[in-house]
Amino acid sequence: MLIYLIRRILIAIPTLLGITLVTFVIINLAPGGPIEQKLQKMQMGAGGDSRSTSIPPEVLENLIKQYGFDKPVHVRYWIWLKNISRFDFGESFSYQEPVMDVISSKFPVSLQFGIASLILTYMICIPLGVKKAINAGGIFDQVSGIILYIMVSIPPLVLGIFLIVWFAGGSYFDWFPIGGIKSDMYDDLTTMGKVLDRAYHFVLPLTCYVIGGFTELSMLVRNSMLDVIKSDFIRTARAKGLDNNLIYFKHALRNALIPVATGLGGFLRVFLAGSLIVETIFNLDGIGLLGYSSILARDYNVIMGLTFISALLLLVGNMMSDFIYVMVDPRIDFK
Q1: Is the pLDDT of residue 143 over 90?
Q2: Structural domains of the chain, with CATH
């Protein structure tokens, strides 16, 4: 296993470099860079027409040096790599703050929704998938399957608007707040009051976060459970007269959860979970909205910071999935 881990790390390093290199080149070749946007703001701030107001050459030259665009792309990428080795992601062009400070300021919102959606999805989908497998082909299995496929087919934008119109004072019921993750009087509440207040604000956006993922995980558990139920050792257990609940929940479920358990390595992605549509609709200042606004503003350092962290978490999560696979199924041996 140690040799396999070393091999995976050696593969992950060039993969990470390739992801960051491609992203760096693409964003630097895209039109409308930070210098152009800075010049436009300066022209508009001077009260002139952007087409007629001229910028002194020395100002333009200073801006090019300030943003590091006086060097070729490959040189800038090499400088960025050296800074990354010191965990220095540079300064955000838009926020005029270190990139890590900008990301960390948006991090709590996305992290809360990421963890909550992960826990809620597994708590609902595993029992639902087992129930569907036990009643495969029955009314419950068919009806729940139809509902799940309807849920996954609803776009988050449409669902978010529907929830606001119906349950957030849009046209019918005023049961939940539209935006934010806490009330104005949040600091004055007790500990339990704070928990309930957060949960109250989480209901609508969390519904948009998780509803699309229910179908995939539920059907994975169902199909995996069906495969195990058809196995020889389950037929042997039935022949011995064991209780059905004991067969399903002790013997079958443990083996059926192997494919599900291996996906737990992806839990690291909840640290940067963010949905642009959900965060925009429900006024949540999280990672998804930060990434979108950074792309529009050509904030290269923030874009590269988010890309690097996301790719790193993805690669580490994949390696963790392999370890979990070995832990839950001793028959697997990576060499």
Answers
A1: yes
A2: 2-98 (no CATH), 100-328 (1.10.3720.10)
